[in-house]
Structure formats: C-alpha cells, structure tokens
Design a protein that fits this description.
single chain; 602 residues; alpha/beta; Rossmann fold; four-stranded antiparallel beta sheet; 23 strands; 21% helix; globular
Length: 602
C-alpha cells in the first residue's frame, strides 16, 4: 500500500461505527487510482496503526474488505476561466466581451456578468424576436449585422425614407446606433467582431436622432413604428444630462407610449427599454420623464468590477442594471461591439451601452415565452435581477417591506439572463393592473413633512393591494430648485429618494409643476396605511420654497401569489436570522461568564 500518513492528505485513520476506514486522496473523474479504502475487523485498530507505520501488510489477516478508489474532481469556487465555460465562439472580440462572460478580463470581477451562457445553454438566442434601435441609424451593411437586419421593420424618420443608414461625418459621430445594434444582434461564429446578447434576434433601425432639433411628431412616430412587428424598443437617449434640465415626453409621444403598452404586440404591449442617463452625481434620473415613466424599463450601468460608473445617475425609478465602462483606463474595460463601415470597437460606453444589453436579455426571455406582457417583463426584472457584486460608496443595498433587495442606484440589481429565461418558461401572466388616487394635499405652504393615510381604494373596483409603481405628483417652487431634496416613506417603512440635490440647477421660477416622481422600490408592498413625504433643502446657502400640491398615485394589482411566497420566504429568513442572532448572543454571554469565572478562580 502506498502513501500512508497519520493525518496527511494521502491517507488518514478514522473509526466509523465498528470499522476502521483508511481514506485516500482525490484524482481525476472516472479514473481508478492506486489508493485503496481498507475496512478492517473491529478488533484490528492496533494492527492497523502498525501497518501504517511499517508500510507493510502484517495485518492482512485482519482485513475485512478492500475498495479500489475512483478519482473525481473538485473545483475552486469564485473563479472561472473562459476556456472552461462551454461557449465556443469564433468571433475575435468574444473573449473581450466581459459583460457576457466575466472571467476577470481587464481586471474585472469574475462572475459579474449578464449570465447569458446559461440562457444560451438552454437554447435561447433571441430567435423570432425583433428589437428596434431608436437612434442615429444603423450600418445595416455591416457584415456582423446584415444577416440579422430586419429591413421591413426599419425606417428613417430623419430623412423620411426606409433606409436608416447613418449620415457620414469625419469624426464618426453617428456610430451610436450601430454600436448599440451590435450589442443586441451581432451574429455569432462568423469570425467578425463579437457576439450579440441575443445573437439570433432581428434588429431594426429607426433613425430619428440626426436632425437639428427633435419634434413630438418624430418621437411619437418612432416609438409607435410597426408595434405588431417590433417587440422591443431600445432608447439610449433623453433630455440633456446637464444637471439642470427637467423634461420628458410631450403629448403625442405620451399617447404613443400608452398605445404601445396597451395595443402593441397584439395587446401584450410594446417593451420600451430606456437608458437612465449620464449626468452623474450632478443629475437625477427622476427629472427625466422617459427614464422615470412607468411604461419604460429604466436601466442603469455598472463597470466590470461592480462599481458604479462616474456618469451614472441615481433615482428611485431605475428598475435594474447592466454593464458599461467607466473609471478604468484599460481599453478592454469598455464594451466590445460593432462599429461603422464594417469595423469593430472596444470603446462603446455610457448608459447608452447598458440599455441595448437589457434589450438583448429581454429578447431571450421573449423567445422562452412569447406571451410575456410588458408588465410581465418588469416583474421578471424585479424578481430575477441580482445584487451579485454590485456596490457603491454612497448608496447601500436595502430590503423593502416584502424582502426584495434594491439599491437607489442599481435598482433591483444586474439582469440575469439565465434566471430570467428559466422563470419566463414557467411564468403566468400577472393579474390585471389597477390605478388608485390615494390622496392629495394642496396648498401645504412651507411644511417640510406631509402625510397621507390611505386604504388604497379598498372596497372599490380599483383597489390596489400589491404595488408595482408609485407616483408622487408634486408641484413645488423654490428659490433654488437644485437644492430641493424629496423623500417618501411607505406604510411598510421603505424610504425612496424621489429627488436628490442637483448642484447645477439654479432655477428659481419654474420649479416642478405636477411632476410625477416615481419609485419602484415599494414593489410588492401593501400600500394601505400612512405615506410620508419629506421636502427639504441641501446646499451651501439657505433656501425657501412652497409645496403647493402632492398627489399620491398607486399602481398595482389586487392579487399576486408570488409576492405572498416572497413574503413567506423573507419572514422565514428573518426568523432564522433572529434565531442565529440569539444564538450568537447566548454564545457571547456564555463566553463572558466563563471568562468571569476563570478570572475569579485565578
């Protein structure tokens, strides 16, 4: 027998019931090794030690049974090598696409990615789904996009023709849409650039950003273009991210969005994905009426090590996050995708890059379940997004009243493609949605804290028991709008930051006029009880303001069984956590008592 030791890795001795077992080390899966498991008769323990020390077989007569050991593998957790993941792509930039499979490229954090490998392994690649990129056009002749380009669903609203090719500029300024398109639908295994999140989906180009000014007609026409053929609309644009603009969709565009979610995709609803904004800490995406709309899925970004990008805006309306670049100078820390005129790039960036990644994940979910409604997609985002290793120095992770974990900057976490397609497979359409005006306070003057107690329309047809979106429609004026800070706390104790300080906003005249500040942080909660609105100022100089109106709008369902399950799971975890805390306290008390006794005895 080879490789004995008393307690070493090769062989150890242990009495198990009435037998002495000698254990061997591990080896390769399915391989017979030269290590043996020897079972001795129960009266042979002394002889067994002699056998071990003498490396002989003197105790052979005491051997009851011998088992030849089969080798198998064990792997360190927390580290993945891209060559160990069963995704083989010939595309030259695939190994640079850390947001698809993060193995630590460009000093990133392994495992921090969209988990597309799991979705692909299940057979979902976006087949049968069309994503429209509403932008400055698409280079639909690009060899990595041409095979997935949906010409019939494309249009140029800047030039009023069916050919949304980007207008040429020397600085390639109009490369934005082409880069976004590649993130979603770049073909796989063609030895060109990288791979799209949904690499078998179809991509449509809607050119609508490249003209001297925007109009309500152009926006509305783009958002409502072919809603029975286009499943997902991806928008990486919005009002100016200068930290002083408060703006949103105009009347025609609002109507187009409403029609889209109610009538698009045969009544299941168009899915609008919106980049949350690039204004950084100087701005707040609740001042962007597109990103803060209930009808859109607002997406923020993280960089490849889990930190927030410096340009990220925070707000309570953000639903989830994907990835982009930021902070790091490493050129491979950017987003790898297609570029103009058949080129590739490693430098796509901003929340512009984050929204198309989300659109790709949603395309995978729609392939898994084409019957998903626009609201189903929001629920799936809330339930399957993961905290993973996302972190921010300012905004900590918290749990709302039903145990859902959220972050003011990252929403409910990073999208998980594998988790989403698996849940989508078994998903049942969420119940009907209702809207309740929970209460309104007018002419409140200089009060800093207001309260509305509501039964959430209980007893009426529009009773809301399980929340989705909550809107605080506020009219307020201030000597300096940028110093305003607004927080709202739900009856279940969840605090939403509706408006943060915007140091560049010097407005003293317009203020906010019936502006719908929105939060997703109370998702699933029971809205009945007292809601508290706190309005104050943060800044270097004293300011004055008048809150003229606050109307509380509740949107949600009367039944949502999965929320009940989440609550039960959360309460169980809380009970377990409290039990563990009590056990720790008891251990500490015992330890203190022992120390005290020993001290006295000494």
């Amino acid at each position: 027998m080879r490789g004995y030791s008393r307690y070493g890795t090769a062989v150890g001795f242990m009495v198990l019931l009435d037998a002495l077992l000698i254990f061997a080390t591990q080896a390769t899966e399915g391989v017979l090794t030269d290590h043996l498991l020897v079972q001795l008769h129960e009266d042979a323990q002394d002889e067994a030690h002699q056998v071990a020390t003498q490396h002989g077989l003197q105790s052979a007569r005491k051997v009851k049974k011998v088992f030849e050991q089969e080798g198998f593998s064990r792997q360190k957790r927390g580290y993945r090598n891209i060559n160990d993941i069963e995704v083989n792509m010939s595309d030259p930039l695939f190994t640079k696409q850390w947001y698809l499979i993060n193995t630590g490229q460009a000093d990133g954090t392994p495992g921090l990615d969209l988990n597309v490998a799991e979705a692909w392994a299940l057979g979902y690649t976006g087949k049968g789904v069309t994503i429209a990129i509403m932008d400055d056009g698409i280079d639909y002749l690009h060899p990595d996009l041409a095979s997935n380009y949906n010409a019939d669903a494309s249009y140029d609203f800047s030039s009023n023709d069916p050919f949304p090719f980007p207008r040429y500029t020397d600085d390639w300024f109009n490369s934005h849409g082409t880069r976004c398109a590649g993130e979603v639908s770049a073909a796989a295994n063609n030895n060109i650039c990288g791979v799209g999140v949904a690499y078998n989906s179809k991509v449509a180009g809607i050119r609508m950003l490249d003209q001297p000014f925007m109009t309500d007609i152009i926006e509305a026409s783009s958002i409502s273009h072919m809603p029975q053929d286009i499943d997902i609309y991806s928008a990486s644009w919005g009002p100016t991210d200068d930290g002083k603009t408060v703006d949103g969709p105009r009347e025609l565009t609002l109507q187009a969005m409403a029609d889209g979610v109610n009538k698009g995709r045969g009544g299941k609803g168009s899915i609008y994905v919106w980049a949350s904004g690039d204004g950084g800490s100087y701005d707040d995406c609740n001042c962007d009426g597109y990103a803060s709309s209930m009808w859109t899925i607002s997406i923020n970004s993280a960089i490849n090590d889990g930190r927030t990008a410096l340009y990220d805006e925070s707000c309570s309306s953000t639903l989830a996050s994907t990835f982009s670049n930021g902070r790091k100078r490493n050129p491979e820390a950017g987003v790898a995708t297609t570029d103009l005129y058949g080129n590739c790039t490693l430098r796509h960036s901003g929340t512009s890059a984050a929204a198309p990644e989300a659109a790709g994940v949603f395309a995978l979910a729609l392939e898994a379940n084409p019957n998903l409604t626009w609201r189903d997609m929001q629920h799936l985002s809330v339930l399957t997004s993961k905290r993973n290793q996302l972190h921010d120095e300012v905004h900590q992770w918290r749990r709302n009243g039903v145990g859902l974990e959220f972050n003011h900057l990252f929403g409910y976490g990073v999208l998980d493609a594998g988790g989403m397609v698996k849940m989508a497979n078994e998903w049942k359409t969420v119940p009907e949605r209702f809207h309740c005006v929970a209460g309104s306070i007018q002419e409140s003057g200089n009060k800093l804290v207001l309260a509305i107690t509501t039964e959430a329309c209980q007893g009426k047809d529009n009773f809301v028991r399980y929340l989705e979106h909550v809107q605080a429609v506020v009219t307020v004026n201030a000597t300096r709008r940028g110093d305003l800070n607004i927080n709202m706390t739900s009856p279940m104790g969840t605090k939403s930051i509706l408006l943060s300080r915007r140091p560049r906003d010097d407005d003293s005249k317009v203020g906010f006029d019936k502006w719908p500040f929105m939060t997703t942080h109370t998702w699933g909660e029971d809205p009945r009880g007292t809601w508290v609105l706190e309005v104050g100022f943060r800044g270097d100089q004293p300011q004055r303001g008048v809150l003229k109106e606050w109307t509380l709008m509740l949107h949600g369902t009367q039944s949502a069984p999965y929320i009940d399950q989440i609550v039960r799971d959360y309460q169980s975890k809380l009970a377990m956590s409290k039990k563990e805390e009590l056990e720790e306290e008891l251990d500490e008390a015992v330890e203190r008592s022992l120390k005290s006794l020993m001290s006295k005895n000494n």
